[in-house]
Amino acid sequence: MTDLSGRIALVTGAGTGIGKGIAIELAACGAKVAIHYNSSDAGAKDTEARIRALGGECMLVQADVSRKQEIDRMAEQVIERFGGIDILVNNAALQMNIGLFEYDESAYDQLMHVNLKGYWQCMQAVIPSMKARGKGRIVIISSVHSKRPTDFDPVYAMTKGGMRMLCRESALELARYNITVNAVEPGAVDVGKKSGKPRDIIPDEVAGEAVTKPRDVLLRKFPMGRIGLPQDVGQLVCYLSSDASDFMTGSAIRLDGASMLF
Amino acid sequence: MTGTVMITDADSDSGIALVRRFASDTGANFILCGNPGGERMQAALSACRSAGVRTMATDASLCSPAAVDAVLQEALERLGPVTVLIHNRRCAAPIRVEDGEEAAFLRMLDAHAKSAFVCTQAVGRQMAEAGTGSIVFASSIHAEKPTGSSFAYSVSQGAIKMLAKEAALTLGRSGVRVNTIEMGPVEGDDERFRSDVATQYRDYRFKVPNAELGSWEDLAACALFLASSEARYVNGADLRLDGGFVLHYLDHKMKRGQQHREG
């Protein structure tokens, strides 16, 4: 198993779904984990309880990542408690599932401010600590929709297209500090264990089908006969956070069980 | 090609080239976005006058849905419905990931991505109702290739690239095509994208296999093709217009002139 003992990770949006899976996997590999949440405090406490059950060390930190001031405060709290930040996992993102003609200006701005400005400013907030420590790992949780359109939320895909370039630009710019930046592009992920249906990645009508339909029906869209799980993403993030990925930066890894090949 | 062509930043160098080409080769009317009173807009307007077509110049904010709707309404009455939208905007300014200012980031994101979205939504609605139309985003190779100097610019272009693909699906069902031109280097891009972390613009002219930079006339020719019925089956495409620039690898076989070899 990947050894991340002694490393300090900040995972945004770790109260639910993919972020929760990432936080737990990082802790299982020995990292100290700061669990960021905005409104999912019950979910964040659940992530905390699961990490403690593994014998891991963690803390909770609340922030609205559309506000720079709150992002900076979040980073300060983590640094004060754990002494620095080695790993940032940018995961807290919104998806509205609104069509092209239904979007209004405020929904557009909100998505851009959380998904793009928020990802960037979280990076800005941790760079000084990573520079001081001589290395860093930044993982951008993007989506297959950085390349393939959604057909259900154009602005969500725009933010993912922007993330593709944020990853490449920051990889170039931060290489001199020995900070790597990589993106994970998951396809459909089952993130709704409690509600019984996945959310966030695909619209409800497709999502319901992905969980409840028999394997032969699933195979029409998902060659592995299943959709992804948060721990699939978490395990890849552990690799990208480890010394084993030292030479990998500016890369985007599609993690979708080959579903985008259909 | 008939109807009305809407061109953003029509008073920029690239905009003027687009207006000249479309005015000379089509019988369309024009909505010219930019500074109506500016000297450079006069160049665009005079190209239209020579062609004998009707125009409307506007400085409406392209990030404001209400303002863009008002422009389209006025144009509908004066010129007829928009059949071609060319979103053409490039305001790259240096900004770094590490220490960029929020206001500068948002300015860049809005100038490119938000204006593209607002125009696509408004014009797309009109085109979808008419069951025909073509939208062309005059974007950049920096929708794929990092600049090393202006991350907010390439983030914006990456966003526009996905907007084009989404709109190609949504509007494609109503007979509207949406495509992107990824424009490569033109004269001066080595300065425009001067970087201390990226080397792609070093010897940039010679990284184009034929050692010739592109021009705005190349962009206009490509946009004209994408807007025309000749391109009826081209939808959701990214047309890289860079003479092969981004294919350069190790740069050991560049076509250099004698003077450069000696230099």
Which term fits the overall shape of chain B? globular
Q: Which CATH class of chain B applies here? A: Alpha Beta
Which chains have the largest interface?
A-B, 44 and 46 residues
Helix-strand pattern of chain A: EHEHEHEHEHEHHHE
**Which quaternary structure do these chains form?**
heterodimer
Strands of the largest sheet of chain A, in order across it?
3-2-1-4-5-6-7
Rg of chain B (CA only): 19 Å
CATH architectural label of chain B: 3-Layer(aba) Sandwich
> How many DSSP-defined strands of chain A?
7
Q: What average pLDDT do the residues of chain B reach?
A: 96
Percent helix of chain B, as a range, is 40-55%
> Which superfamily, in CATH terms, is the homologous superfamily of the largest domain in chain A?
NAD(P)-binding Rossmann-like Domain
Unreliable sequence segments of chain A: 194-200
Number of helices of chain B: 9
Q: What is the total number of structural domains of chain A?
A: 2
Count every beta strand of chain B, where a strand is a DSSP E run of 2 or more residues.
Answer: 7
Write up what this structure looks like.
- Chain A is an alpha/beta fold.
- Chain A folds into 2 domains: about 10-185 and about 230-255, NAD(P)-binding Rossmann-like Domain (Rossmann fold), CATH 3.40.50; about 195-225, no CATH class.
- Chain A is about 45% helix and about 15% strand.
- Chain A has 8 helices and 7 strands; from the N terminus they run E-H-E-H-E-H-E-H-E-H-E-H-H-H-E.
- Chain A has helices at about 15-30, 40-55, 70-80, 105-135, 155-175, 205-210, 215-220, 230-240, and strands at about 10, 30-35, 60, 85-90, 135-140, 180-185, 250-255.
- Chain A has a 7-stranded parallel beta sheet with strand order 3-2-1-4-5-6-7, sandwiched between helices.
- In chain A, helix 5 (about 155-175) links the parallel strand 5 and strand 6 (about 180-185).
- In chain A, helix 1 packs parallel to helix 2, helix 1 (about 15-30) crosses helix 8 (about 230-240) and helix 3 (about 70-80) runs parallel beside helix 4.
- The longest helix of chain A has 29 residues, at about 105-135.
- The radius of gyration of chain A is 17 Å and the shape is globular.
- Mean pLDDT of chain A is about 95; it is low at about 195-200.
- With about 260 residues, chain B is α/β, with parallel strands linked by helices.
- Chain B has a single domain, classed as Rossmann fold, CATH 3.40.50.720.
- Chain B is about 45% helix and about 15% strand.
- Chain B is built from 9 helices and 7 strands.
- In chain B, strands 3-2-1-4-5-6-7 form a 7-stranded parallel beta sheet, with helices on both faces.
- In chain B, strand 2 (about 30-35), helix 2 and strand 3 (about 55-60) form a beta-alpha-beta unit.
- Chain B is globular and about 55 Å long.
- Chain B starts with a strand and ends with a helix.
- Chains A and B meet through helix 4 and helix 5 of A and helix 4 and helix 5 of B.
